[in-house]
UniProtKB/TrEMBL annotation:
Pfam families: Cyt-b5 (PF00173), FA_desaturase (PF00487). Residues 57-112 form the Cytochrome b5 heme-binding domain. The keyword Membrane applies. It comes from Penaeus vannamei (Whiteleg shrimp). This is Delta-6 desaturase-like protein.
Amino acid sequence: MAPRSRSHGPADAPQPSQQFATGFRRYPTNRDALNKSAVSWMEGKRVDDDVGPYWRVHDKIYDLEKFIDKHPGGKDWLLTTRGTDITEAFESSHISASAEKILSKYYLKDAATPRVSPFTFHDDGFFRTFKRKVRPVLQKVGRGPDWRMILIQDGLALAFVALTMAAVLRESFLAAALGGVVLAMMSMCAHNFFHQKDNWRMYLFDLTLFSSHDWRISHALSHHLFTNTIYDFEISVLEPFFEFLPKANKTWLQRYGSYFYSVALFPVFFYLEALKKWKMIAFGEQKMRPENTLPICELAVFCAFVSSSWTGLKLWLVMHCACSVWFSFIGLTAAHHHPDIYHEGDAMRDNPDWGLCQLDAVRDRMEVTGNLFLVSTTFGDHSLHHLLPTVDHSKLEYLYPAFFETCEEFNIPFQFVRQWELVCGKYLQLANVTPNTRSPGYKEKTKKLI
């Protein structure tokens, strides 16, 4: 649909940095801050949602204080989101109707203002219809990981340990680099686990220089729920080097420079994020968590069992450099960037059903779908994962019949694309300065799985 006009109350005053109209009622607080972080994103959302010490779901305010320790997914989810509108998170995380019954026990009052988010969750809409269709399927197969998923995740962890030992014992930079690639694959697999209830495998993600706790915010609560919009942290944190939104004032360097400076940024991207995290911890802007020490423990192992600390440091740096390159390349070409894919500034569809808007901002690769190893290590089955992020990757394949049936019911010609299209699409979107004036949708007929 045509971009929505903004309301003009004091709280919704236009921001100078806003380049185009948007479906959201507010431009995100802290979006253009110099030091962007998961913590600053969440603090900004608390300001924008303005629900005090409570939680908002749709147009009602709830006091979940007494439910925090009872939350089946772990208390961190509720502690982190206190003071925000969690409508999208609640809807996408809870598939059964029982969650709404539990939520009703903690009702406090009706919200006094409209939601900042434009997305809807009508009972007869695409997303809730899809959830109803998958409930009996998930009751039969379950939502958690099966033996194949455990084998892949634990097998990658063992391979990482073996390559680390080889790098240390032989002082092999090749083994360190291969270990970094396996570490990246293991962390992408572990991302499947940090979307779920608290479990030890999610901390395998912290063996990189990233933080699973921070990524639960920046990825699960921001990117997944507000994909390719101004509230998507994974869009804003890359700016101004990677400008994926179709802004008219992009410089030549922003449009075409990434062909060259990606080579310099990808190897150090993880280091930059780690430095930012440790700076925030040092200055008391972020709490130290036990899992934050895992990369330091890695470094200690490298330095303790090689001929010199300098050699150990170099091996450790090579490992995380390889990890950063592999993760960054896959992450930016997996699903979200092409001129045919919705980005904030493009015309939204007339029906802002959250599920349909998710499909507008995601594509799936035909080379990956159907292979659980590739799905779990390259962010595969991405549309289903975005719609139902707490369902384990190993169970998504069982949901395709219900998904295709729902797409047909709502006249959505779901599309699979080639990986190469998304690799090229990343650069095409970076160069793009012209927003789509038509609702994005899907422009080709359905391509069957091969």
